[in-house]
Amino acid sequence: MKAIHFGAGNIGRGFIGKLLADANATLTFADVNQPLIDQLDHQQSYEVNVVGENSSVERVNNVRAVHSNSPDAVRHISQADVVTTAVGPQILEKIAKTLALGLIERHQLGNENPLNIIACENMVRGTSQLKQHVMREIPQNLHLWVEEHVGFVDSAVDRIVPPGEAANDDPLSVTVETFSEWIVDSTQFKGAMPDIKGMETTTNLMAYVERKLFTLNTGHAITAYLGQLSGLQTIRDAICDSDIRQTVKGAMQESGAVLIQRYGFDPVQHAAYIDKILHRFENPYLRDDVERVGRQPLRKLSAGDRLIRPLLGTIEYGLPHNDLVKGIAAAMCYRNPLDPQALTLVSLLEQQGVENTLMSISDLTDTAIIAEIATAYRAMYKPSAA
Fold first, then answer.
1. What angle, 0 to 180 degrees and rounded to 10, lies between the N-to-C axes of helices 218-229 and 267-281?
2. Given 203, 225, 250, which residue is the final one in a domain?
3. What's residue 122's pLDDT?
4. DSSP character at residue 284
5. Whole domain around residue 95: which residue ranges?
6. Which pTM does this prediction carry?
7. pLDDT tens for residues 375-386?
8. What is the CATH number of the domain that holds 360?
9. DSSP label at 113?
10. Do the beta carbons of residue 214 and residue 309 sit within 8 Å?
């Protein structure tokens, strides 16, 4: 199996890339960070420190690296069996041109072997969105060929991979938690599904996409925003605060009630899932700063993301949402002078006020909910602490 993975950062190396390497794929990373590419292509291996109750150090070997926008990347796509990404939602559109060129070259070479592309991003139906970007770059006369030979497979991914100091003088070393989950939509593959241990299949992907988004992502973000408001530095520090933990767990229970109503998840099993995630936040071996987890607040406050989407579900089903409201208000309090979205948020609040800003970034229209969030925001935000 030949694989090219876009995104050679910590998540790419520590999660999806590692699973591909463990499956004995001929693996090439693609990235725009030239020093990282050079180091990875020279070293051709790196260590993954898996930390938790059962820690281990595992080495990934026999990998190569190319620049994402290079002819080499295009050539690899033309010959690959699997293309994966872990680049971040905002970068998918930027790699679409390279993917399109690879598919065009694949057609020119007469390579009709099935190719499956899987975007492994923190977003809903990320591969479907990537497909739209790619198809815009491909001539109309090749669209049918692409539809016949290329699978665009949506997925849900879950593993905490914080930035960390390189261990053993190895700049490529990466630290990850023991837990990982990679679920793919089995209905979207072309040809046989690749044999990758750790990749699970389902015919009901949206249930698992929203379970992860409404639980892990919702809880992680609210922990970060409440943590920063309380002057705490790490996710572990924040979730060990009893008041923050109570609100975070309450928000995940509120979003969980939506999932139970919508998808029929077992309430007892989902409660155990929430407890497992809280335990993961407490992992003493992972240092994850609240400012990192809270970054890009505008994206996280958008209508389809981890805060507003579950809130809309509670409105749809007439369910409680007090702790989700607190979490959204805390997100609007996020301040980080190094984060362009946080600076934009401050500017919007100054120019438009709380209610108008919330409507413009989240597309909320329910005036009662907007008023609840605005009231919570004004109670939380202390300008002197910004």
1. 40
2. 203
3. 84
4. T
5. 2-203
6. 0.85
7. 999 999 987 544
8. 1.10.1040.10
9. S
10. yes
For residue 88 the two structure tokens come to: 């971040």
Beta-sheet pairing, 150-153 with 63-67: unpaired
β pairing state of 45-51 and 56-61: antiparallel
H/E element holding 117?
Answer: strand 115-119
Supply the DSSP string of 177-218, one letter for each residue: ES--EEEEEGGG-SSSPP--TTEEEES-HHHHHHHHIIIIIH
The pLDDT, as a whole number, for residue 287 is: 87
- Calculate Rg over the CA atoms of the chain: 21
Residue 120 DSSP SS3: coil
Q: What are phi and psi of 295, to 5 degrees?
A: -60, 160
Residues of the chain with pLDDT below 50 are 166-167, 385-386
278: CB partners within 8 A, 6+ apart: 219, 239, 245, 248, 249
If one counts the domains in the chain, the total is: 2
Record the tokens describing residue 323, joined without a space: 């702790």
Residue type, 359: M
Same structural domain for residues 296 and 365? yes
DSSP single-letter state for residue 138: S
Nearest Cα residue to 116 out of 90, 85, 91: 85
The reply to whether 182 and 210 lie within a common domain is no
Point out the domain boundary residue: 203, 220, 235.
Answer: 203
How much is the pLDDT for 164? 63
